[in-house]
Amino acid sequence: MSYVTREFVRGGVSLSVRDWGGDGAGVLLLHGLAGHCGEWDGIARRLRGDGYRVLALDQRGHGESERRPEDVSRAACVDDVLGLVEEFGGGRSFVLVGQSYGGLAALLAAARRHPRIAGAVLVEAGPEKSSPEEAAQVVGWLMGWPVPFGSREEAVAYFGGGAVGEGWASGLEERDGGWRPRFDAFVLGHSLGENAFRSWWEEWDAIDVPLLSVLGQHGIIGAEQWDGMARRQPGLRGLCLPGAGHDLHLERPEELYGAVAAFLREVTGP
Fold first, then answer.
1. Is the pTM here over 0.90, yes or no?
2. Helix (H), strand (E) at residue 9
């Protein structure tokens, strides 16, 4: 079972979409910052096998999508999500599944109360802001990669090996004598600006569709943020994977698939 890569143009920005096909209810997969849609391939394949209509987006500035779009605001990313649902959805409703940066896009898209958004799964994502220092730390890490890597194996080792290392290395491309990222760190840094200075609790309160939060025990969502999320959205489902970190979609894909599949059955029917 494979996908077809499609181009989608939104606001003059070219976006790349992996279209896995399917005739059932829709699922749109959204990767994290500096990630790419291929991180979802294993889960996408399983969900397509379950009969869902599955799409995975390379968000603007990432993967095969336009590398240096002028607008990398949260609003632009949400417009991409909703535009994609309208363009490829065939009139069906979609559940959004996003990790980290992609999870925030899913959260904000759900807050728009678009009639084709039926639910959202937020993987290691929430409405609380970060800080300028945290954003600078992330950008510093991205700019500090020792590129070009001499080989893919070298990159896997740098990113910690195992499934996480493989996942990050798969986002690189071989060009100009080595393996390099398919993004511009300055562009991605700019995209973090809003979240470093404001939170999204008002948007969180506006969501009126079913929500599932999947967290890693060693991830970035602390107890205080989780308590606020659950208090302000009483119907929120929650799952914490013991021992997992922020990249739990790479570390524990089978468990995440199981949680997403159960949520989809509940929200969209068998």
1. yes
2. strand 4-10
Q: Give me 194's structure tokens.
A: 């809003």
Average pLDDT over residues 120-132: 96
Q: Tens digit of pLDDT for each residue in 199-212?
A: 999 999 999 999 99
Burial call 36-65: b when 16+ CB within 10 Å, e when fewer:
bbbbbbbbbebbbebebbbbbbbbbbbbbb
Closest CA to 69 of 16, 7, 13, 11: 13
3-class SS shares of the chain: helix, strand, coil, % to 5:
40, 20, 35
CB contact at 8 A, 36 and 171: yes
**Token duo for residue 219:** 């991830």
Q: What DSSP string runs through 164-224? A: HHHHHHTTEEEETTEEEESS-HHHHHHHTTGGGT---HHHHHH--S-EEEEEETTSS--HH
Count CB atoms within 10 A of the CB of residue 265.
12
